[in-house]
Amino acid sequence: MDKKYNFNDSDEDSSEFDYERFILEEENAEKLKKTAEKTKKSKKTKTPEKPHTAANEIYDWIQCLVSALLICVLVFAFFVRIIGIIGSSMVPTFHDGDSVIISNLFYKPKQGDVVVLRKLSFQEKPIIKRIIAVEGQTVDIDFEQGIVYVDDKPLDEPYIAEPTLTPLDFDGKITVPENCVFVMGDNRNNSTDSRSNQIGCVDTRYIMGKVLLRILPVDKFGTF
Question: Which CATH number does the domain housing residue 143 bear?
Answer without folding.
Answer: 2.10.109.10
